[in-house]
Amino acid sequence: MTLLEQFLLPFGIGDSKALSPPSPTGKASKADPKSPSVTPDGTPKKHRTVALQGYSVPWLLKRTRRKTVGMSIGQGMIQVNAPRWVPISDIEYILQEKSKWLLARLAEWHQSEQHRLLPEQQWIHGASLQYLGKPLTLMLTPQLRQTQWDDFRRELQLALCAEASMEQIRDTVHAWLQSQAKTLFARRLKAISEQSGRRYTKFSLSNARGRWGSCTEDGHIRLNWRLIHFGQEVIDYVIAHELAHTHTMDHGRSFWEEVAEILPTFEEGKSVLRKARLDTLPTF
Ligand SMILES: [Zn+2]
To answer: Could you give the angle at which helices 266-275 and 232-245 cross, rounded to 10 degrees?
Structure first.
């Protein structure tokens, strides 16, 4: 389940607090003067606003055949599904009653929206994944004998049959990303090292959570293979950062001067990485 779907569950279904149809002597026959938008041609939606605890909150009414009033959050507003016999005044009363819950769900919706840089990873044909800062598409290509990368179409063609399990797809992608990381990072590290005249003794990939790179006193640089999801500017920044550690181990002023000398544009990658959320990266 994605974060968003969680907030889209209507609480009218199976909720004991949901309205039930009125008795024959109830308000059913009362005309609803505020909802002339319920048209017979199947466009029964109308945008409205309601004041909840001082906030002007948009809500969308959809008249349905259901027997109870259902509410959910979607597209930054409250979505109400209600039977035709429930007047607007009653719906607004329910919105007031549920205002605390609704405002909390709305706040969560906005927060999750901001953080949806990368949705939960799907391991299926046609799914997409961040590779070097841009999305690639996973393709199951049974006729291939080994994984192939189509740079022009940004397709990762996996030599797997159409019935491959999600685990098989995930493991194949994992192996490919790691091998790409190893080759590309080694090449880039060598180039930046030679260009800047900063030496290292050894390079390997790391898998540490929450640590993008490290450098030992004897110049062994480790780079987290997950950097492969990011653009070149981020990878270059982490490389420059670790190369600077061969000169200074702390993060003092002279350290950052060193980083700037190795990679004058390092701020760009640094700021992308600072804003990145590790929990939105695919898990393997
Ligand atoms: Zn550091």
So the answer is: 110
CA–CA–CA angle 274, 275, 281 (5° rounding): 100
Residue 259 Cα to ligand 1 middle (Å): 10
Six token digits for residue 103? 């405002």
- 172 C-alpha vs ligand 1 centroid, how far in Å? 32
pTM: 0.59
269 Cα–ligand 1 center, Å: 14
Side-chain half-sphere exposure of 261, counting CA atoms within 13 A: 14
Distance 200 CA to ligand 1 centre (A): 15
Helix count and strand count (H, E) for the chain: 7, 11
pLDDT bucket at 210, cuts 50 / 70 / 90: low
- Cα separation, 208 vs 210, whole angstroms: 6
Residue 90 near residue 19 (C-beta atoms within 8 A) = yes
Question: Which helix (H) or strand (E) covers residue 155, if one does?
Answer: strand 155-158
Per-residue pLDDT tens digits for 140-171: 999 999 999 999 999 999 999 989 999 999 99
Instruction: Give the domains, in start order, of the chain with CATH numbers.
Output: 3-31+43-108 (no CATH), 128-172 (no CATH), 177-280 (3.30.2010.10)
The rounded percent of the chain whose pLDDT value lies above 70 is 79
Question: How many whole angstroms separate alpha carbon 61 and alpha carbon 93?
Answer: 14
